[in-house]
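Run log, item B.
One chain of 498 residues. Sequence copied directly from the ordering sheet:
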Amino acid sequence: MTVSHTSPGTEAGDAAPADGAALPDGTAEVPGARAAADPSAAAPTEKKDEDGAGAGGADAAEKPLLRNLDFQALWTSEAFAALAKETAEVAYPLLILSSTGSAFYAGAVGSAQLITASLMSIPGGTLADRMDRRLLMIVCNLVRVVLLGLFSLLVFTDHTHPALIFTVAVGSAVCLGISNPTGLAAIKQLVPASQLTQATAQNQIRYFAATMGGPPVGGTLFGVARAFPFLSAAIGFLISTVLLLFIRKPMKVEQAAPGEKRNTAEGFRILGRQPVLRLLIVWIMGSNMAFTHSGVFLALIATAESRGASAGFTGMLLSIAGIGGLVGSLIAGPVIKKVAPSTLFLAAAWIGPVAAVLLANVSGLIPLGIIVACVFLRGPITSALFLAYLAAMVPDKAQGRVLGAVMFMSMIAAPVGVFAIGTVFDQAGPVWVFTVMAVVSGLAALPTLSPRIRKLAPPEAYADTATVADTAAPAPATPGSAAAAPASDDQPQQGDPR
């Protein structure tokens, strides 16, 4: 499972997720919001923007999210960026395979992208907690416009080289690593607490729609001219930049208090102090090693190439796989509302090894895409749920750093998987690739058998944790928790159901 970023990830959405991430639409009180039965607790404490989207404003909570023009500008901008990213990323291995014929080198480039994006998510999260988030996203977009625009010209004139492809791919990954936590952290600045679940659900649709639409667009454009996918991606990032200019609400972060140090390591410390997040991130890391989008897409692309499929058919195959993620993003809200969190995590974890065994034993190409679609179906649901717990347990002022840490942890294992897929495919073929996936995903699923996960309370049961970390004052025990939350997040967190 990838934390959507959208996406990747996050955004997960993203866990983002992931591969940023959705929360159930209107199913529960928003994690991270103060669990107050007193209606006065929701009274606005700050001036609202023109759309009434001031944080914590009661009027903003009543206004439909579709009328929040600032958030919709962010969402549409990120949608174009996600589509551009997916279009370019499916074209990199196609270009490498057509020019060198090496799945190993395609895997090496994919691994380098993932390593770079995961490493850069750490400083990206820190920057997201220190500077204007809109400006940071604009800079990342413009860098990719220049990189991909120049690269498309070089591809047009046949001045490509494996080292050049590597440089452009890694350069784009740097921007992705910085912009991912920034885009996710920006949501809380534009949306009132009561609509966070709805906003992050909409984020999931964006990410997985791009996953479904980007590969066929990239494959089809590559079949027409090898430079077209990269030129199209550059245009997409340019449109994304223009849309960010329509955000009217200031997106500067809260200034640090005197003596407060917002260091990068704090994101990892907060993540490590939460047992639930700690267990789930272990599963996410192992699952991403086996089933990260780049790795699975590489396996499908290489398998299709070995069976004589055209670039257009390969793009269609990847689109079939991506449909699973889109469907999952559409049903995430109702599923999370009706199914217990522990059941969702257990089912999602063990779908992986079962699907990998099927992939190793079926013939034909279309069935492979359908099975992968079933694996991707779980992505937006579990990313949404994981990021719901993160939102409940993490202070607002540390969101960027913790999201950066989560993206790093969720992505760092993926390059190993992508590299291994390329190597195993070159040496032994697709059957062994999918067999290795089954073994790795099975081992990764073991942490979900922990009693802490099997007896997991809903995210809103942990909402006071973030509030306490923000105020450094004791909070009353949340219903269903074992005890009141501690006054300092330097102490072990209480209230986690065993």
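Observations after the first pass:
- The first helix runs from residue 58 to 62.
- The chain has 18 helices and no strands.
Flagged for discussion on Thursday.
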